[in-house]
Amino acid sequence: MNRLLDSDLKRLLKRGVTQIINEEELVRMLRSGRPLRLKQGFDPSFTDIHMGHVVGLRKLRQFQQLGHQVVLIVGDWTARIGDPTGRSLTRPMLSAEQVKFNAQTYMEQFFKIVDKEKTEVRYQSAWFDKGVFGLDDIIKLTSKFTVAQFLAREDFARRYADGHPIAITEFLYPLMQGYDSVMIEADVEFGGTDQVFNCMVGRQLQEMAGLKPQQVFLMPLLVGTDGVQKMSKSLGNYIGVTDPPNQMYGKTMSVNDDMIIPYLELLTDVPDEEIAHFNAGMAGGKLNPMTVKKRLAHELVKDFWSVKDAEEAAGEFARTVQHKEVPEEIPVLNVPAGSDAALSAELVRAGLAKSRTEARRLMQQNAVEIDGQAITGDIEISKVAGGSIIKVGKRRFIKIVRE
C-alpha cells in the first residue's frame, strides 16, 4: 500500500465528490493502510460507455493508484431488468444474448481508464446463474424489506401516484445490486447521486449477512452536451469513450458554457488552481469560454487518443466550424444511378440522421446544406449532382458519388 498523504486524501475525497457515507469511517479505513475492496457496477444496457461513466471510473483509478483493489461488477442480470432509478416508466427487459454482446465491448472500454492488471471483474451470473442464489434466497431477501420502503423512493412514489405500472422485477433490482456487495465483500461502493437507495440497500444486506457495512461514495451526475439532462445515449447528448478524435473534440466544443468547469473537474487532471483561474476569468469576462472549452476538448482527446490526435482535431475544428471550410477527408455515400430515393432517406442511410423525420426537421432548421446552399425541404437524391458535398449541422459532411 502506498502511504496516503493529506494531499492525496483531499484529491480523493473532495474533487468530483458529492457525498460520502460515512466519511469519517472511510478516512479511518484509508489511513489504516489496509487495501480496500472498491465496488462499482455497470449494467451493459448499451454497447458503449460515455463520459458519464468515466466520472466514476476516474475516481476508482485514483484509489487504484494508491494500492486499493477495484472490483467491477458487470450487471449481466440487473441489465436484463433495467435500473428503475429516475425512470417514469418500466424499462423493456433485455435478453441474455443482448446483455452478453454489450458486455464484451464494455470490458475493452473500461480499461481505457482503469488498470486492467489491477482490476477484478465479476459477473453477477457467477452467483445468480450457478445455483449459489436460489428461490429460497430470493424469498429470504425479499422478506427483509417492505413495499412501503420501496414506495418511499421518489421515482417509485411518483409513478405510483401517477398510476404508472411498477413491475415486481424493478423491486428486485436494488436487492440484486445490494447482494453483489455481499458476494464480493465490498468495503466501498461507488455510484452517482441517483444510486443512494441502491447503495444503502447493499449496506443493509451486508449487515444482515454479518459483514461490516460498506461505505458509500457518491459522485455527481454528468450533465450531457445539451446542458439540461443527465448524459445518456438514449437522449443523444453524450460524448462516447470510443468516439473518433474529431467527433469527440467537436462534441466537446458543443458543450454548454456552464458545464465547462464541471467537465474539467470531473473528466480531466487539470490542476484545481488552473481550473479556479479559468472559472474566475470567465466569470469576470476576461477569458473567452471558447478558449477554455478548447483546452477541455484537447484534454479529452489527448487522454483517450493522443496528443497528435488532439492537435489534429483542433485544426479540423478550426477549419470546418470556425472558418467553415470543407474537411480534408470526407466519407463517401455511393448512390445508384437513377435512384429516386429521398434525400432524407439517404441521410439516414449515411448515418447523418436517426430517422427521416429528424432529417426533415434538420432541413427545416437550415441545418442541411448542399455545396453551401441550405435545403429547406426534402428532395429526390437524383437532383443532387455527383461530387456534391452535403453538410449536416456544423461538423458532419458526406460526398455524393454516383455508381
Report on the biggest sheet.
6 strands, mixed
The count of domains is 3
> Which CATH top level class of the largest domain fits?
Alpha Beta
Residue runs with pLDDT of under 50 for 5 or more positions:
none
Number of beta strands: 11
Order of helices and strands: HEHEHEHHEHHHHHEHEHHHHHEHHEEEE
* Continuous helix count: 18
Q: Which term fits the overall shape?
A: globular
Q: Give the name of the CATH architecture of the largest domain.
A: 3-Layer(aba) Sandwich
Q: CATH topology of the largest domain, anyone?
A: Rossmann fold
Beta-strand residue fraction = 5-15%
Q: What distance lies between the first and last C-alpha atoms, to the nearest angstrom?
A: 63 Å
CATH superfamily of the largest domain: HUPs
Helix content: 40-55%
Order of adjacent strands in the largest pleated sheet: 1-6-5-2-3-4
Query: Average pLDDT, to the nearest integer?
Result: 86
- Rg over CA atoms, rounded to whole Å, is 24 Å
Report the structural category. alpha/beta
What characteristics describe this protein?
403 residues, alpha/beta, Rossmann fold, Tyrosyl-Transfer RNA Synthetase, Structural Genomics Hypothetical 15.5 Kd Protein In mrcA-pckA Intergenic Region, Chain A, 3 domains, 6-stranded mixed sheet, 18 helices, 46% helix
